[in-house]
UniProtKB/TrEMBL annotation:
This is HET-domain-containing protein. It comes from Patellaria atrata CBS 101060. Pfam families: HET. InterPro entries: HET, HetReg/Transcr_Mod. PANTHER family: ANKYRIN REPEAT DOMAIN-CONTAINING PROTEIN 39 HOMOLOG-RELATED, HETEROKARYON INCOMPATIBILITY DOMAIN-CONTAINING PROTEIN.
Length: 124
């Protein structure tokens, strides 16, 4: 999977979880102005789990590795009929881009505060 760079610090990525109940989790990552998405997404709080224990989701038609724990959370939170807008740090922040990581982490308190709700995932 290749991330599209965030051109400015006032942008975030949201994970659009595609409805379904099959074995393949499908999603899209979209870039949005942070000020425009207030209460239009749910943030997920979870333990990342073992970084080496991964599964794949189909994101924008490409394979994106996520930890097993996040995969389990997405599987549980996926709606059967409607798209769900989520924010999950491990996916919505490009973890290999230190500059992006820095400015996104500085926004995390606001990201959680402005979510319509925070979903807590402690595992199966």
């Amino acid at each position: 999977y290749v991330y599209v760079a965030l051109p400015s610090e006032d942008l975030i990525r949201l994970l659009e979880l595609i409805p379904g109940d099959g074995p393949v989790i499908q999603c899209r990552l979209r870039i949005a102005f942070f000020e425009d998405v207030e209460a239009r997404y749910e943030a997920i709080s979870y333990c990342w789990g073992d970084a080496k224990d991964t599964k794949y989701v189909s994101c924008n038609g490409l394979k994106l590795p996520v930890t097993r724990n996040l995969h389990d959370a997405l599987e549980r939170f996926r709606d059967k009929k409607k798209t769900r807008a989520l924010w999950a740090g491990a996916v919505c922040i490009h973890q290999e881009n230190e500059e992006e990581q820095g400015h996104q982490v500085r926004q995390m308190a606001s990201i959680y505060q402005q979510a319509s709700k925070v979903l807590i995932w402690i595992g199966k």
